[in-house]
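In this supplementary section we document a worked example of the pipeline. Step one takes a protein sequence of length 293 as its only input; no multiple sequence alignment statistics are reported here. Step two produces a three-dimensional model, which step three serialises into structure tokens for compact storage. The input and output of this example are shown verbatim.
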Amino acid sequence: MSCSVCPRNCQIDRTAACGFCGCSSVPRIARAALHFDEEPCISGTNGSGTIFFSGCNLKCIFCQNMAIQDGTLGEPFTVERLAETMQKLEALGAHNINLVTPTPHRDAIAAALRLAKKNGLKIPVLYNTNSYETVETIRAFEGLIDIYLPDLKYVDPKLSLKFSRAADYFDVAIKAIEEMFRQVGPMVCDENGIAVRGVRIRHLVLPGCVYDTRQVLDAIKAKFGTDCPISLMSQFTPIPQCTVKPLDRPLTRREYESALDYCLSLGFTNVYTQELTSVGASFTPPFSDHVEL
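The serialised model returned by step three reads:
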């Protein structure tokens, strides 16, 4: 069957070859473990039960998870094993199941979630995405996903083409995020501050691109209002593979503070921020061809 699961619409038969995302029809997982480097409402005290899928449909040239971007690293997982892994993470005390870059594996993940829930999975399930999604794919998860954690990376099509090979990124992403809000609304936390349902939009401030960050914040305000939960991130870390200016240098304190000042001037009331000390390799987990829990 030709693949149209994401906006690339590459029409590859992924049972016979890999798509633009680098993925076959069988998910590869490069890490499944408790993860403590998400927002406090996601990681909490016990950690987020994070499953890193190998392969990606966006191909950002600055990706911190470059090791798994092409889809070759990781271990093939059946639907049954994926469901079992979710339940193992729950048994370890995870606050949630955190699906990282799930888009290419829509059908397998949906089947695994149905099986895991049938077998007793109770904790919230989180969809952690670059937002380059079709509305149809997001609709396929209605009732299965409790929390959406979408990036909104760019507004400027020149930037999204140059850095992620997707000139249509914003037009596609904003529609996908609207569908996420339709399903679950803005993020809600329990009495302990742990997310149980809803959407929080992430935006990574890029060096030399604060002007686009302002456009992103303007767009969020226009579509979702100033009560929309957002994470304004400073953790951009230059990687050796990327020599494209200005992404070959770290974000400066002045750039991040300028972005944050603009965010607050717009009236946003629910904002997670980061210190510039958040930069570094600690945000890149160890990936492997063999996944053990």
